[in-house]
Specification:
single chain; alpha/beta; Rossmann fold; 2 domains; elongated
Length: about 270
């Protein structure tokens, strides 16, 4: 079964097909790689659950959607096709937040714009136990999924999720505003990997003609959303840093830091009020 699955996945362009086959076997039967290696001749009465997952993966469906979950920071999050899959690169924003606010008592309010799975807001609340937060998304089903993740991680009493266009309904200030908005230029979307372009929500990817449409909406709002000592931390795409710095300057914001991810790619910008 593993050999057939490995061959099938390789033919369909899946990287590390043997490893993925073992992960899919575990997903189908609950038996991890160690068990599989110890019991290579174990008879399997019903191969269909396994090969069903193999076919879906071969078509490009992301492993996180097959599992229905994805780890992010210290959390385990339920993910559906209503939510962008949380990625390790986005943890750069959490690293920046903790670097600039190491005292866990200094953050009492957090706003997450474009919350998706709720990963950033919930990670921040997990790190800052005195904080409460609001997550906003444009899609109701996505906001509901984020609220479910709050319950699954026992953070529901400190997190509220709303459906809105960015910060439009808010008249409050926050110690931290955090966001991973869509930033893929429209012309680049066709070149994305199949498991991204065909499965993840397009609204969470499409950043307009130059990838910066969301930032033009968000940045002008930040001076009125931040407390006097507040920070905004936003993720952005490759090569967009200089344009974001200029948009921030026009919006009356000060660039505190540009942050690189573990691959050395500049991934996030930290902003404050001037």
């Amino acid at each position: 079964m593993l050999a057939d699955a490995t061959e099938y996945l390789a033919e369909h362009g899946i990287d590390q097909p043997r490893k993925e086959a073992r992960l899919l076997f575990e997903l189908a039967y609950g038996q991890d790689t160690a068990w599989q290696m110890i019991h290579p001749d174990e008879p399997i009465s019903d191969p269909m659950p396994f090969f069903g997952f193999v076919q879906r993966r071969g078509k490009g469906e992301p492993m996180a959607y097959l599992r229905g979950s994805k780890g992010f920071w210290s959390l385990d999050l339920e993910v559906t096709r209503d939510t962008l899959i949380p990625r390790g690169d986005t943890e750069t924003l959490m690293e920046a937040l903790i670097r600039h606010r190491p005292d866990r008592s200094t953050v009492s309010s957090v706003l997450d714009l474009g919350t998706g799975s709720g990963c950033l807001l919930l990670a921040a609340l997990a790190e800052y136990p005195a904080a409460r937060g609001i997550g906003i998304d444009r899609v109701e089903s996505t906001a509901r999924q984020a609220a479910k993740n709050a319950r699954l991680n026992h953070l529901e009493e400190r997190a509220l999720f709303c459906v809105a266009q960015w910060a439009a309904p808010l008249a409050a200030r926050f110690d931290v505003v955090i966001s991973n908005p869509p930033y893929i230029p429209q012309a680049d979307i066709g070149g994305l990997m199949k498991d991204v372009a065909d499965y993840e929500p397009m609204m969470a990817l499409d950043g307009g003609a130059d990838g910066l449409a969301a930032y033009r909406d968000i940045l002008p709002c930040l001076p009125n959303l931040l407390t006097p000592d507040g920070l905004a931390i936003l993720e952005f795409g490759i090569g967009q840093g200089d344009d974001l710095k200029e948009l921030a300057r026009v919006a009356g914001l000060q660039v505190v830091e540009l942050c690189a991810d573990l691959g050395g790619i500049t991934r996030a910008i930290v902003l404050s009020r001037e």
